Amino acid sequence: MVLYIDSLLKSQNFDGKALKERAQHRLCHYLSFAYPAAKQRVFKTNITADILRGKMTSPLFLAKKFNFRAKKQLGQNFLSDPSTAKMIVDRSGIDKNDVVLEIGAGFGALTIPAAQAATKIFTVEKDQRIIPALENELSLHKIENAVILETDILKVDIAALAQAENCQLIVLGNLPYNISSQILIRLMAARKVIKRAVLMFQKELAQRIGAPPSCKDYSRISVMVQYLADIKPVAQIKAHLFSPKPKVDSEVIEIVFKNKKQYLAENEEFFFRVIKAGFGKRRKNLKNALSRSELKISTETAISALEQSDIDPARRAETLSVAEFVTLSNRLLAILSKMPA
Questions:
Q1: What does the pLDDT look like over 177-225, one tens digit per residue?
Q2: DSSP assignment string, 146-207
Q3: Domains and CATH numbers, the chain
Q4: Separation of alpha carbons 125 and 102, rounded Å
Q5: Which residues are registered as beta bridge partners of 229?
Q6: Beta carbons of 317 and 253 less than 8 angstroms apart
Q7: Among 2, 51, 106, 161, fewest CB within 10 Å belongs to which?
Q8: pLDDT score of 280 more than 50
Q9: Is 226 left (phi over 0), alpha (psi -120 to 50) or beta?
Q10: How many whole angstroms separate alpha carbon 176 and alpha carbon 103?
Q11: CA within 13 Å, CB half, 169
C-alpha cells in the first residue's frame, strides 16, 4: 500500500478519473490516518484535493488547513465519504424545482450535492469558525445557489423563509446529536411549510422516532412524530464514515408531514401535554402519571378519562398507540371543559 501511494504521489500524470470512487475514498482515508508523511507531501504536490479525494475534500484536510477542531459540545461529526453524501441526496428526491433548508452545513458534504440538485439551498451553520472552510469548498465546486445562514437553527424563522421563497421547503441535515430532539420539535411546529425532511440522527434516536408501542424505544417523541408524519428509513450510516468518528452508527430517515390525519386531536397543544405527562413518569401507571403531572388533574379525573377511553388505568404510557393517546386527550379535554373554572 505504501509503495502504491508513493508511486501515485510521485507521478505528475496522476489520473484521478481512473480510480473508482471507493478506491479514492480508501486512499484518502489511508493518507489521513495511517500515513502522515505521505499526507504532508500531498499538500506540497500539484495534485488537488478534489482529484485525490473524489467529490469532496477530507474533513481532516480542511480541519488542518483552516486550523479547526471539532467541538464535542456542538455535536460535530462530519460526514467524510462522498458516495454516502451523494446517496443521501439522491434518495431525498431533490430536484431543480426544490428549495432546500440544510441544518448544519459543516464542511459542505451534503451542501454540495444538494446545491447541485436543487434550485437553491439555505444552509445553516452555527459555528462561525467553519464558515471560511465552507465558503472555500463552495467556491471550489462553483456553487452559486447556496446561501449560508450563520446562526442557530433553533433561531431560524422557517415559516418566514418559506414565505419569502413562496414555496414549501425540503429540510436536509446531519443533525447535531445534542439538540436533535429540539430541532425535530421545531420542524414539527413549522410543518405546514415543509414538503418533507430527510434527516440523519444517531441510530438510537432514529429508532425511537419510528418505534412501535410496547417497545423499549417507544417514547414521547415517537408518539408526536408518528401522529404528525409518515416515517420511512432511508439509509444506515456506519460510524467510521464520519470525522471525528462517533461512538455509534447513524440512520437517515425521511419524514413526510400528513395533510390529513387518521386520528384527530381536538386540541393539538393539549394533546402534546397529555403525551408529555404520560411519559413524564415512565415507571408509573397512567392513572398516577397523569394525576401527578403538570396537567394538575385529580386521580379521579384521570381514572374517568382513561375508562371513558377504554384504557385500563393500570397501563403505562409506552403501551398506548397513537390512536389511544388521541382518544385519551379528547376525552380528558371534554371532562375538563365541563368543570368549573
A1: 889 999 999 999 999 999 999 999 999 999 999 999 999 999 999 999 9
A2: EEEE-S-GGG--HHHHHHHHTSPEEEEEE--GGGHHHHHHHHHHTGGGEEEEEEEEEHHHHH
A3: 2-54 (no CATH), 74-257 (3.40.50.150), 268-337 (1.10.8.100)
A4: 9
A5: 257
A6: no
A7: 2
A8: yes
A9: alpha
A10: 9
A11: 26
Q: Residues in the chain, how many?
A: 341
Give me 65's grid cell. 488547513
Cell of 159: 415559516
Range from 12-16, 135-139, 147-151, 224-228 carrying the lowest mean pLDDT: 12-16
Q: How far apart are CA 282 and CA 6, in angstroms?
A: 59
CB 277 within 8 A of CB 266: no
Q: Is residue 14 predicted with pLDDT exceeding 70? A: no
What long-range pairs does 237-242 form, CB within 8 A, spacing at least 24? 237/79, 237/84, 237/200, 241/79, 241/80, 241/81, 241/84, 242/77, 242/78, 242/79, 242/80
Per-residue pLDDT of 18-73, as tens digits, reads: 444 444 444 444 444 433 333 433 333 333 444 344 456 665 556 555 555 655 65
Q: Can you spell out the DSSP letters for 256-308?
A: EE-SS-SS--SSHHHHHHHHHHHHHTTTS-HHHHHHTSTT---HHHHHHHHHH
